[in-house]
Write a structure and sequence with these properties.
alpha+beta; 24% strand; four-stranded antiparallel sheet; 302 residues
């Protein structure tokens, strides 16, 4: 029940942050911008108690229970989460509070789900329990992805000339050449870059600067190379116009950003599995079946 309250307030927080700038502009109160500082601070404030409470929910009896009995099967999960989160922080060299809390929270959700499955592994689990456990584990994967992106993202804005190289975070970027590409309704300056990891070539990226012929608008076409453990982004800035052919280039490394979407997908699948539980179908059928007097006999049987 508490988590439902927190989730509802979180949805309202996102709605307020999204619409408030539009409301102030429509009312003539001026223009304001609501950005990452607001959403980041409010997300942590509201999601911290949710993350702490989620693994406790399945172990808690309705209306009456003791915290000691609920926490007993989760003590190992709590210990593993703290140790694992600390080890990840040490390996990545990122000991800021937000990142470490995210790793510990993600492991806490994931190991708490495993603890619940192990507790009930002897019997046949109904689908609503399987779906719930999947959703909780998916929330853990999501949180680990957020923590990794928060702590390990690398962003560089550099000046590069054709034939030049730049090294960042173990990657070597080689600027091969610029080319002009004709599209159906645009003309683009396209940069061709080769990315190396050590001595191994891993990909080629071709970001563009497009000018649309009808409107004259200039748009940046980002080059993206996704991966299970990292995404690479590259975008062209502006030409230096100094006779060397140099361009401003932006390069991003986003580790484990796919885990955020993968975690959300697991949550969705967990909800779908729960919705197929037989008890929900039986309840609906029972509510639709009545005897001649109008009494829900089938419901009592169910």
């Amino acid at each position: 029940l508490l988590n439902n309250v927190f989730f509802t307030v979180s949805a309202a927080m996102v709605l307020l942050g999204t619409l408030y700038p539009l409301i102030t502009e429509a009312m003539g109160w001026g223009q304001i911008s609501v950005g990452p500082p607001y959403f980041g601070a409010m997300f942590i404030l509201l999601m911290t108690p949710v993350v702490m409470l989620i693994p406790l929910g399945p172990f808690t009896r309705w209306k009456q229970d003791r915290i000691g009995r609920v926490m007993r099967p989760l003590l190992i999960s709590a210990l593993v989460s703290i140790v694992a989160g600390t080890i990840v922080a040490a390996l990545l060299g990122a000991f800021n509070l937000r990142a470490v809390s995210g790793w510990i929270g993600g492991f806490w959700l994931f190991t708490g789900s495993i603890a619940y499955l192990m507790r009930h592994a002897k019997g046949r689990l109904p689908r609503h329990v399987i779906g719930m456990t999947m959703a909780h584990a998916g929330a853990g994967v999501f949180l680990i992805g957020v923590a990794m992106v928060e702590s390990s993202t690398v962003e560089r804005d550099v000046r590069m000339e054709p034939g030049g190289t730049y090294e960042v975070a173990g990657y070597t970027i080689r600027f091969n050449e610029m080319d002009t590409i004709q599209g159906p309704n645009w003309m683009a300056e396209e940069g061709r870059f080769t990315i190396f990891r050590g001595d191994r070539e891993i990909t080629t990226m071709e970001p563009q600067k497009r000018r649309y012929t009808r409107s004259g608008d200039v748009m940046t076409q980002v080059a993206l190379r996704p991966g299970v453990t990292r995404d690479l982004y590259m975008a062209l800035g502006e030409s230096m116009d100094d006779g060397t052919g140099a361009w401003s280039v932006r390069f991003h490394i986003k580790p484990f950003v796919r885990w955020i979407w993968f975690g959300a997908l697991i949550i969705l699948l967990g909800a779908l599995v729960s919705a197929t539980d037989r008890r929900y179908r039986a309840r609906q059928k029972a509510e639709e079946t009545v005897d001649e007097s109008g009494s829900p006999v089938a419901e009592a049987r169910a």
